[in-house]
């Protein structure tokens, strides 16, 4: 599941990002110009793949290690943590398709909706684990949850800025 969602997101982001750039280039082109020499940017596929797969694998591994190191009693396995992160990216597939609409405020609203929905999935899943920390430090618990949300929102913002 998380593998297929990540692969789908890679191609949706790369393809829709190129379509958005094409639409933007055609909209800014003068009507007198007949040469529409536009080329697909293949580097976006590689960048999207490396960004998404690094995020889906590295962040959950670090988070799992942090939970293990702190001795959280309600811990998920590494595979479950990776699955949660992979599934949380599923909202960005339809959002990346809608990001083709080149209205910046609309894109930012979609970014906010996606970050809130996917971030809330992560918070709901990992809140019991964070709160099962034996040290019971409230500041640390909330800091970990805020970092999870911020990293997820930063990924979405990076998608929007680079690909669209």
TrEMBL record:
Subcellular location: Golgi apparatus membrane; Membrane
Topological relation to the membrane, as annotated: Multi-pass membrane protein
Entry keywords, A to Z: Membrane, Transmembrane, Transmembrane helix
Domain of life of the native organism: Eukaryota
GO biological process, one term: vesicle-mediated transport
Cellular component GO terms held in the UniProt record: Golgi membrane
Major place of residence: Golgi
A molecular function GO annotation: small GTPase binding
Transmembrane regions listed in the UniProt entry: 6-24, 45-67, 79-101, 108-130, 142-163
Boundaries of every Yip1 domain copy: 1-156
Similarity remark: Belongs to the YIP1 family.
PANTHER family on file: PROTEIN YIPF
Name of the featured protein: Protein YIPF
Source organism: Oppiella nova
Lineage, highest ranks first: Eukaryota, Metazoa, Ecdysozoa, Arthropoda, Chelicerata
């Amino acid at each position: 599941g998380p593998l297929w969602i990540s692969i789908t997101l890679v191609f949706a982001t790369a393809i829709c990002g190129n379509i958005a750039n094409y639409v933007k280039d055609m909209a800014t082109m003068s009507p007198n110009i007949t040469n529409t020499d536009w080329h697909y940017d293949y580097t976006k596929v590689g960048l999207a793949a490396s960004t998404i797969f690094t995020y889906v694998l590295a962040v959950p591994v670090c988070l799992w290690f942090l939970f293990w190191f702190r001795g959280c009693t309600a811990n998920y396995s590494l595979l479950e943590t990776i699955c949660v992160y992979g599934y949380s990216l599923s909202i960005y597939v339809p959002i990346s398709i809608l990001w083709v609409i080149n209205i910046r405020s609309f894109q930012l609203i979609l970014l906010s909706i996606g970050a809130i929905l996917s971030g809330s999935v992560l918070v709901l899943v990992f809140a019991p684990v964070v709160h099962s920390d034996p040290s019971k430090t409230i500041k640390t618990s909330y800091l970990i949850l805020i970092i999870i949300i911020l990293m997820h929102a930063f990924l979405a913002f990076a998608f929007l800025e680079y690909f669209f």
